[in-house]
User: Fold these one by one.
Assistant:
Number 1:
Amino acid sequence: MTGAASAGSAGSTPLIVRPVKSARIATVIAAAVLIAFVIIAIVLPHSSDGVTFTTADQFGIGGTGLLVVIGILMFRRPRLRADASGVDSRGFMGTYRHVEWDLVNAVEFPPKVRFARLVLPGDELIPLYAVQRGDRERSVSAMQRLRELHSDWLSGSIRVDPSNPTTGGGEQPPPQKPDLAPGA
């Protein structure tokens, strides 16, 4: 979590979270894999296995290594941004999702689950891949801030200005909930 995300009131400063531990591990592993594939591509034509390797084979091995490295670096992609307008989340494959606070029933991080999640109506779960158990204190602060934003939304202390959805804290009355009484 960045320093700007932890300061200020709930409606004024957006919460921005990125995975730290898994991103560092992915970077180290990607570097090791890239080095290994480059060494293999260089040493390959000089082996005495009785097989002739060409420059095309070397480029093929290097290209394969590059694809593996790109796959490993996907663990650096998750992002989370939450503010008065809702939660923006990006997953490993770059899938982006915006969820407005009025759709969020709960923000939870159950034991033995690796990622935090949003609970939507119908028990739909949206995993928040940027908030990971391995990040420990960063995840705890991110969850506290997310729950604070959600609580502020529920209490009506933050609302989105309809003319500018990127700002929160407008002085608007909370939206009226439909009457769901049976027989109405």
Number 2:
Amino acid sequence: MTAPHPSPDMLLGPVLDGLRRRPDVEAPELRAWDAADRYLLDTAAPWLRESPAAVVVVDDTHGALSLGALALGAQRVRVHQDSLIARYALAANAAGAGATAIEQHPLEQVMTPDAPLALLRLPRSLDRLDAVARLLAAHAHPDAVLIAGNMLKHMTPAQNEVLRASFERVDVSLARGKARLLTARGSRHLAPVEPARGYDPDHELHIVALPGVFAGASLDIGTRAMLDAPEGLPAYATAIDLACGSGVLAAFLARRAPGARVIASDVSAVAVQSAALTAAANGVAVEAVLDDGLSQQPDASADLVVLNPPFHVGAAVHTGIALRLFAEAGRVLRPGGQLWAVWNSHLAYAPALERAVGPTRQAARTPKFTVTVSRRR
């Protein structure tokens, strides 16, 4: 008599219970996995029992999908994560679990014909979803299955239509635990998505953005508020565009001081690639760096840091990332150096900036945003 398979609860419970978010923001209200991760894994379990070969995982946030797939029987997991913090979190959780059969790959190489199953955390950006779906479908076996999911509050019917462009059939699951899944089959081969290109005539800046970059190839209103600040930026020999997105501010700084060293830093790989493309489109020299904050920059090494910080940690509105970035700017600035930050006025970051950097004053204010200048003590 054949012994029954262990239930997903038995296999996944120890894995999920052991996950941590580090080096991502950790707080009592933030967890390293959610109901969408669990729904994806429970749905994938039958495939993994029948075909325990390579599994592809895209944009795993902290390792739940990758380590969960291994626990359910996958022989190896091919992973692509745009976020460097997500890569670090997966690596730390994998080391803690003693898991070694996990391979990181560029997005265009992560899918292979010998992988019968791919798991995807659905991005909120439709452009990013289109880019991911096209690349997965282009390299997939004809019988491969893509299961994509997220929490309901981050899903729209438009995501179904985007997937249907790259797959012949898309099935929509019932909701469970405020999460939903889309299962796609029958890959179509479409051309990869090209970067979006824009131009801001007010500041004569070209903008190039790969799919998924915040604000795309346009100038978001926070960045515009900083560029429009009535008081000019100080002189600088080294300047950093922290959390650079498409790199618009880095290109502006490089054009303003052609002899300066300008660094564009972001935790997102597509943002860093976009910053390099934006610099090239504007004919300026910028060092685009994939980094967790400013970990690669020495103490007291910069004259100027500009920052338009994110105010979400995953799906939650949370100040944790901004506070970390303020502290990083304070560490990297030379005494007397300046942090120019733009932020949603209701967040009232001025006291935090005073603590992390030094004396802080308001340089500009719009109906929604505040631009502040903090001088390093």
Number 3:
Amino acid sequence: MNREHPAIGATTARTVEIDGVELLAFHGCGYLGLAHEPQVIDAAREALARHGASGLASRRTSGNLELHERLESRLADFMGTEAALVTEDGFIADLSALQGLAARGHDLGLLDADAHPSLVAGATITGIERFDYGPGDVNRVIALLDRHADRRPLVLTDGVFGMHGRMAPIPDILRHLPDGGLVLVDDCHGVGVLGERGRGTIEAFRVPMDHVLLTSSLSKALGSSGGFVAGSSAVIESIRRSAEAFTTTTGLAPPAAAAALAAVERLDSEPERLERLRANIGQLHRTARRVGIRSTGTFLPVLRIDFTTEIEARRLSAALHVEGLYAPAVRYPGSVGAGAVRIAVTSEHTAHDLRRLEDALERHLPESSD
């Protein structure tokens, strides 16, 4: 079969099996190891036995489960918002949010040029008038807000840009946002990583949610599947009633909803899991400095190694594979060069795991990498 990446057989919080061989894994977004947490797996198994594999209908018809509502209540409580809405995935969360906001009269979108493709697609599908601004360019945002002072603007941005290693200047944007404006923050790489309790970018910045609507994924740090929108009760209810991406889509599968609920409970009750992740993040970026890589976003569990050519990236990935490590070459929006190797650590990696990574990089990292 012709495929860009090998098919993975089995996985644990630290390993993957490829072609029958177990490799130490430094890939993906399971930053807290929650996808393999026994309580999370047990919750999914129980929901599968009770509800089956699917909700079988949209939640606006007959597919609304008590489990969905319990997860929404728990997410709102965890995020510190009035309400939350659970969707099938993070992409649909962004699209649903934009459709609901357009229905409330928001017809102008100011989009960070590095924003996730789901925000770009959502703005296009909803038909709002869109103006792009350079990455984190607050002055351009202010100029656009002044030019359209009679509109109800939306500023559309990631909270933290996972492939760039930067945070959006949300406090500065909020200071200049008019009363009728709103900042839509896709925080899929912030929730579960940033903030004192892992609530994400907004908690890290310590800004109020009054003029913020947040979307995120349940499939990254929270280790399940799906997405959610969190904000005021009025905005969430508008999305629930008017966003076609939500109203016409089968609800989140019961095992995934139950797993996400258990994952939030684990994150909220086990601060040591977040502490372990942050210790490993520090070790990852110290490794980068020692092997000569200029890392960005040293608060993130991701190290991106850029290359001039894709062949170089694949060569390093293959060399790591031979050493028993899985760190794939990737092509993704945000890669500076023609190729990149993305390395991610989790809370479950051990000090020995990280030493193996550093030793392998020292042996195989070419001088042309950055």
